[in-house]
Specification:
Blueprint (H helix, E strand, L loop, with lengths): L23 H18 L4 E4 L2 H8 L5 H5 L5 E5 L5 E4 L4 H4 L6 E3 L10 H18 L7 E3 L4 H9 L4 E3 L1 H8 L4 H24 L6 H13 L5 E2 L4 E3 L20 E5 L2 E2 L5 E2 L2 E5 L6 H20 L6 H7 L5 H4 L5 E6 L3 E7 L21 E8 L8 E10 L2 E4 L12
Parallel strand pairs: 1-5, 3-4, 5-6
Antiparallel strand pairs: 1-2, 2-3, 7-10, 8-9, 9-12, 10-11, 13-14, 13-15, 15-16, 16-17
Helix pairs in contact: 1-7, 5-6, 8-9
């Protein structure tokens, strides 16, 4: 077993602003400036963005993100210099015009069946026309994602494309001061979500009812929505990643939750806790909880700007052998307007294709999610814990401060 760490106080260390203190114009300008800086750094004169978080990062506008994420209904062109052009879902142009100067109707073809190819070619011609307006017609177009019809249409139109991922990742990994302020606000929302969730745990409640409590707590505080249903109890906690079902919570069950939420202004609230339904945990439950807790606390203590991802992975606590087979796929991932990467995998994890160990380092004002799952194969329970932190010059600062379950740490 890992040497046990004593429970430590959970105190707010980030200054939480009033909403009136957030300069949203500065937020939008700062994000666009970072993106355009990285486009230049990677020699990408212009980008075509369909990813909803990338569009929001570049323009400041989000429209029906859940629906548009899967329908290719809106997109934007972002030159490395100059203002973006937002191509908006036609019914929502009036929404985007409140923020973006150049808003045009978007082409769509997803439900066109056999006619989709011709509509996609029409779209590709409109992209070429817009590139011509920007003086970038002969430049490579850096794209985050596009469907098959769109890809083929760009090829037919002779538009050379490349991947924009290097620029968007580099831009979004370090948060602007306004983004940090929004994370501080959302940390308080996350604490409230977990408080209401824990208070609702009782024998007889169903997992999906607890998930509804979590969602209600988020939405009543101006959050935007949950992007997973990761609430599990009892045997559903092992292995992890079974989503909320109609299982009834029983006395003595462990109840796990991953908040997985887009909070105020879309910023991610990503914290995991496991609670006991009852007062007296078993020794085996306490052991699993201690393994997960010590792992997360050990990672938290490691966080420093300048540390490479490889060095972090090498120094992070190792799970006992009995827990290694079902450990979480990564130790660390990043967060912003969505769960972000690159993350830090376990360096010795040979389950399936080996994950990339990025040649990167921790930087000030990154937001990291440090997580651990501890569940022995075949056990009737497991424990998922996760903290979300801001990287500062002095180390990690908690974004959410909700306490761990003291009954399981005795």
């Amino acid at each position: 077993m890992l040497p046990s760490m004593p429970p430590r106080p959970r105190v707010h260390q980030l200054s939480v602003p009033n909403l009136s203190e957030i300069d949203f114009g500065k937020l939008r300008a700062g994000r666009l400036a970072r993106l355009q800086t990285m486009l230049k750094r990677h020699d990408l004169p212009v980008a075509l963005l369909y990813n909803t978080a990338n569009i929001r990062y570049a323009t400041g506008v989000d429209v029906m993100a859940v629906w548009t994420a899967g329908t290719f209904a809106r997109y934007c062109l972002v030159p490395a210099e100059g203002a973006p052009i937002l191509f908006e879902y036609k019914g929502s142009i009036h929404v985007s015009q409140k923020v973006v100067r150049d808003v045009r109707p978007a082409y769509t073809w997803q439900y066109g069946g056999a006619a989709a190819r011709d509509k996609a070619r029409e779209w590709a011609r409109s992209i070429r026309s817009a590139l011509r307006e920007l003086g970038l017609e002969r430049e490579r177009l850096a794209v985050d994602k596009v469907d098959t019809a769109g890809f083929l249409a760009l090829q037919d139109e002779g538009i050379a494309i490349t991947d924009v991922g290097a620029a968007t990742v580099d831009a979004r990994e370090v948060k602007t001061p306004e983004e940090v302020a929004l994370f501080a606000i959302n940390g308080g929302i996350g604490d409230a979500m977990l408080a209401e969730f824990e208070a609702a745990i009782r024998p007889g409640i169903r997992e999906y009812e607890l998930w509804a409590v979590l969602s209600d707590a988020l939405l009543r505080r101006h959050g935007e929505g949950l992007f997973t249903r990761l609430v599990a109890s009892g045997t559903n906690t092992n292995p992890w990643l079974t989503e909320a079902h109609d299982k009834v919570v029983m006395p003595g069950d462990l109840v796990g939750v991953d908040t997985d939420a887009n909070g105020y202004e879309g910023y991610v609230i990503d914290v995991s806790r496991t609670f006991l339904c009852g007062d007296t945990p078993s020794p085996e439950q306490k052991e699993a909880y201690r393994v997960a807790y010590d792992s997360v606390m050990g990672m938290l203590d490691l966080v420093r700007p300048g540390m490479t991802f490889q060095e972090f992975a090498d120094k992070a606590p190792r799970l006992p052998a009995a827990y290694a087979a079902q450990r979480y796929p990564t130790m660390v991932h990043q967060a912003g307007l969505e769960d972000e990467g690159p993350g830090i995998p376990y360096p010795d994890d040979d389950r399936g294709p080996r994950r990339i160990m990025p040649e990167r380092e921790l930087k000030e004002n990154m937001v990291l999610c440090l997580e651990c799952y501890a569940g022995k194969p075949g056990a009737p329970f497991g424990v998922k814990l996760e903290d979300q932190v801001l990287v500062t010059a002095e180390g990690a600062r908690l974004i959410c401060t909700y306490p761990f379950d003291a009954k399981l740490l005795d």
